[in-house]
Structures are given as structure tokens and as C-alpha cells.
Amino acid sequence: MKIERITVCNIASLAGTHSVDFTKDPLRTAGLFSISGATGAGKSTLLDALCLALFDQTPRLNQVGRLAELTTGERQNDTRMLLRRNTAYGFAEVAFVGVDQQQWTARWSVRRSHNKPDGKLQDVVMALYRGHIAPGGQGTVTEGGKKTLVKDAIVEKIGLTFEQFTRAVLLAQHDFATFLKADDKQRAEILQALTGTEQFEAISRAVFVRYS
How many Å apart are CA 116 and CA 149, to the nearest integer? Predict the structure, then answer.
């Protein structure tokens, strides 16, 4: 899996639509680079957008836990709470190359009723588009509608679950040792998913069965 673009619109500290395109210079040829800036500049929001588009989860909200309901009836660990205040609509979008070497675009979006900033939060909508589409645009929907089906399809395309992704690809603050603390079985599963070597385990098992 290779991330090629992250787009965020009205999420947390980022107002309006912003895109980071890793297929264009200077990022395309940069090799290593850092995401830096002042507090509130949107560093964590970019990482939130990445996880929202792919999993409808973020490490930041998972750390909140199941807190008491707010006066609005919403929960603080609800991903919809990342919609920027005083906005009626927002989305997170990730264009990527999947483990099948095909291009895909995953989108997470949420709006408030009647498209009013003070309207009631509506259900999250997720979609998986074939190919790379314009930020916020439309394309050929491979999976859309039922969120669970979309999430399953995205996991299949990227080859990692949320837990594996946040242990080996995106390590949340104060959680850099998570991968190291994982047991042998968990580390093996993550490394196999990252390196594509699960087929060798299957071959090994087949050889063992045949000659045992």
C-alpha cells in the first residue's frame, strides 16, 4: 500500500479544503520529510484524515475512551466530532495504491442536517472509488452505502487492519513502543502484511502437511 494523496476539508483545525500530494515535487523526490508547525497548525489533523478515510477511526479519539455524553447527546470519541465547528460539511480523502497495485480513493464524509452549521450531525458516509479522482469529486464507486462493507473493502485493498496500521505505519504520540511490545504472533502478522510474505507461510504449511 502506498499513500499518494491526503485531502481534508473542514476537519478539526483545518478550515476549507487542503491537499497533500505525495506524487508531486518536492514531496515526490524528498525521500524523508517531516510534518512540522505550530500548535494548532493541523499536523495531527492530517493524520486524523488519513485514518478517518481508511478506517473511520483515529488513535486520538480512541485514547479518549467512552466518555459521558455531551449536552448535545453526542460522545466525545465519536469521529463525527472532528467536523470543524461552525461548518455544515466536511470530508477526509485518501488516494492510494493498494496491495493489488491498483489505484483507489477512499472517502469519509459527514454533514449536519439541512446543511446548517447548527444542524444535527448525520451518519458518517464512506465510499471507495476505483482510481484516483479529483479531491471531493465523483468517480466509479466500487463500494458505497453500507459502511461496514466499505471498511472491509478498504482493509482488503490496503492489506492492514486499523490496529496493524497504527502499530506499524502510523504510530500515535506516546505510542511508539506499541509494535515492540506486541507479542510474537502479532508482530509476525504485521510484518507479513507489510512485506507480503504470507504466501511463504502458506507454502511452509502445505509442505509440512504433505510430508508429515
Answer: 29
